[in-house]
Amino acid sequence: MMRVRASADPWRPWTDGPPGAGLRRVYCLPYAGGAASVYRPWMEQSAAYGVEIVPVELPGRGTRWTEEPFGVMDRLVTALAEELFVRETEPFALFGHSMGAHIAFAVATALEELRAKGVGVGAGGVSHLFVSASRAPGVRPPRLLHPLPDGELLDAMAGLGGTPPEVLGNSELMAFALPMIRTDLTLLERWLPEPGLTVSCPVSAFGGEDDLLADPELIAGWESFTSGSFARRVFPGDHFYLREHTEPVLAEMGRLLSS
Asked: d(Cα 28, Cα 93) in Å, to the nearest integer?
């Protein structure tokens, strides 16, 4: 079991320094409204599968709740690239769930562009991109969520699962959280990548078989966004399948990274 320790780095609040011996580092980006803490339980189990999980804390939530969240993808990607990933000295993987998948893809393309310009990004940059519970870039959802009135947005969140009813029904808590969630959704739903944008690293798309937002057929669309290899893995569950299937997800990540 990996020992979780605090870090002074606001972007990665619970780990610092080089990867553990023999472990492949995986930076994990959250879904809309999520914080780095959603991946903290993974940290204690991941070493058994040959990976080191590094949760990424975005401004406006979790340990950075007093900061202003980013509402524009390009600004967030620039900050992540310049303040976090350019410091890496070893290859690393990216994992993003829902909104986090699009952030991870945008970061991976930005880092490849930096390397092409001669700006060092570790010894190998992004070695693998894991996209979870997400439609491929450019595929619009049936309806946009960020402009919805509060009540309709709460109903939409309830339909996706993942948020306990008692949390959604807590008016004081949601009054605090909804503006950040809406900003996240605005960032996600207004971002469109340039046509033909791809990464060269392998891409693996994970999803839940009963996901109403990104079903197994829709996550297959990610194959068009890499010039490398592509794999798809479907798990039982809905949009938040990974909460009940942490060990199979970590095992599949470890298998793909070691193959």
From this structure: 9
